[in-house]
Amino acid sequence: MKYFKKIVLLFVLFFIYTYIVSIDNIPQNIAIFQGEEINIPTLWGINIKKEDESIQTTSNLNSSTFENVGEEKLEVSLFEKIKLKTINVQVLEDVEVIPSGDIVGIKLYTSGVLVVGTSSIEGIDGNIYKPFENTGIQEGDSIIEINGKSVNTADELISEVNESGGNEIEIKFIHKNNQKIAKIKPVKNMENLYKLGLWVRDSAAGVGTLTFYNEDTKCFAALGHAITDIDTGEIISTSSGEIDGVQILSIIKGETNEPGRIEGSINNNLVIGNIYNNTKFGVFGIIKDLNNLNLDYSKKMKVASRGEIELGPATCLSAIDGEVKEYNLEIDKIYLNNNYDNKSMVIKITDKDLISKTGGIVQGMSGSPIIQNGKFIGAITHVLVNNPQVGYAVFADLMLKY
Which domains are assigned to the chain? Predict the structure, then answer.
């Protein structure tokens, strides 16, 4: 009898465990395209429903399609009595894009000036001061106003501080997306200049890859990751920016524990487009001059949903040789439920020609579009330091949201 009870208990525990795993495996966020079927496998008794507020009815959506672009919320319940979780569905417009692979120069200008460090000041009296202390201003904050006057460059900030004559000034700054105000008294240093003890920066520049161009909206996407400040690691809040032509000077091959890089010279006179957004899934903007961009319109293609992506062979586009070529890689892992960062897939470069030139993935290849089964599926974003042939890629649908 005791043996039978143990068997029953084990069966019940296994039954409960199976349901817990099934519920946990139902994603909280889903991105699909217009008309694409959503099919979420569930166990008996688990229901997924959407409430139409206009008619106050519900319909089971374990398998269904969505036609309207926007956001939907689905309710997961047990026997339609116990609410278990909510699924956020992002319905994206079914579009076609032109994958690029062009290597470009990327310049970004901050909103205000970015604080990248602090330092002590030796005053004209020989004493050491830290005027920034107790103001709440920290690395990663952006200074946007001094005494009610906007500052957009480091030169403007320096000018305003020196014009203060050492009198207390009011600084408006942004700290973790919140505006704050601080009072600070500049200190005159040994060179007769007034200082705050803050190191600031107003721009960032580098080399990256243009991912795709949307012919209908005239918009582009690049990088697949954010431009962050080299000192603070914070995503730079942009006021403006641009992508320009670039001349590739050299390629430093990647090796174990030594990431490689593409070294290039940005051509400031060859403006391709203007940047309007810098996000964790890439930089986005409007193409200004198509003549300065090498696009193959014959490669216009559909965007794959993450459910269509398969483990196995794929290709990426890159212009490391000065012209866009297609290189082989493998999709090793797919993280279907990942909506919070740009490490959606693990990829491995398998193309012998590309490996011989770069060692694998190098800095500057971020944004290289990935194609599988004739569809754009994502973009290269990172390289693993211990193996330059392996890295991460972001899903295409995450880049399309911007």
Answer: 2-92 (2.60.40), 96-107+203-400 (2.40.10.10), 120-196 (2.30.42.10)
